[in-house]
Amino acid sequence: GDFENFKLESxxxxxxxxxxxxxxxxxADEAALTKKMYxxxxxxxxxxxxxxxxxxxxxxxxxxxxxxxxxxxxxxPFFDGRRKINLVVNLIDSxxxxxxxxxxxxxxxxxxxIIDQEWKEHLREMDDLRTSVRNAQYEQKDPLLIYKLxxxxxxxxxxxxxxxxxxxxxxxxxxPSPEEERQAAKRQMPKxxxxxxxxxxxxxxxxxxxxxxxxxxxxxxxxxxxxxxEVREVRKIGRNDRVKVLNVRSGETKEMKFxxxxxxxxxxxxxxxxxx
Length: 276
What we know:
It contains nine helices and five strands. A three-stranded antiparallel beta sheet has the order 4-3-5, with helices on one face. The two termini are about 30 Å apart. It folds into two domains: about 5-190, Helical scaffold and wing domains of SecA, CATH 1.10.3060; about 235-275, no CATH class. The protein is mainly α. The chain has helices spanning about 5-15, 20-25, 30-65, 90-95, 100-135, 145-170, 180-190, 200-220, 260-265; strands at about 75-80, 85-90, 240-245, 255, 270. The longest helix is centred in the N-terminal third of the chain and has 38 residues, at about 30-65.
């Protein structure tokens, strides 16, 4: 196995530093390593959930004691550093269970949301596969056989990514600070037009006026107006396309699917390498 990728994915998906040394990684039994990582992750997850309950329950208690006649449910925001989810919980139930139901409800809503997201993406990939597999007959291959094999691999890939995304969010989810709330809201706000860029000087206006007069004159004389087409090349990256990312600190590069690289790029330590 690749020890560096193992350490990287421990941080990406489990949000924990691997306690396993490189020597242990290559020499120890796989089952023993799996058990050690599971126990470490379980302990970290339990500590995090306990901290969430301790932080959230005083607020739940305050709302229950002062406003339970006004509200049946309350909204609790959760943030994983990139995405925000608003969790709706029953106020009375949360108070009676002393907030222990909050993390259980979070697990449900996150799992369902990611299943929905990944399933939609899987259906799009299946549509693409149906389109591309038609070309197999020109290569004297059985389209049905290729479709079965490729669709099975797509399903396995979807399940793998679903588990990773769910685990990653749950391991990182926390009650956001006011600053994180502002950052999340800022990401969701539409970009506003910079008015300063719309201002033109007198020279620009004069040139534009002269150009408009020339165009009008040509139109009156029946002369054709030639315009240079504006060509823009934009590289579109699919979530399953393989990309190369660069560690801005160490200079290390890795190749992986774009949907796996998104977490690294969002952390700011890695950047996408343009190979076009």
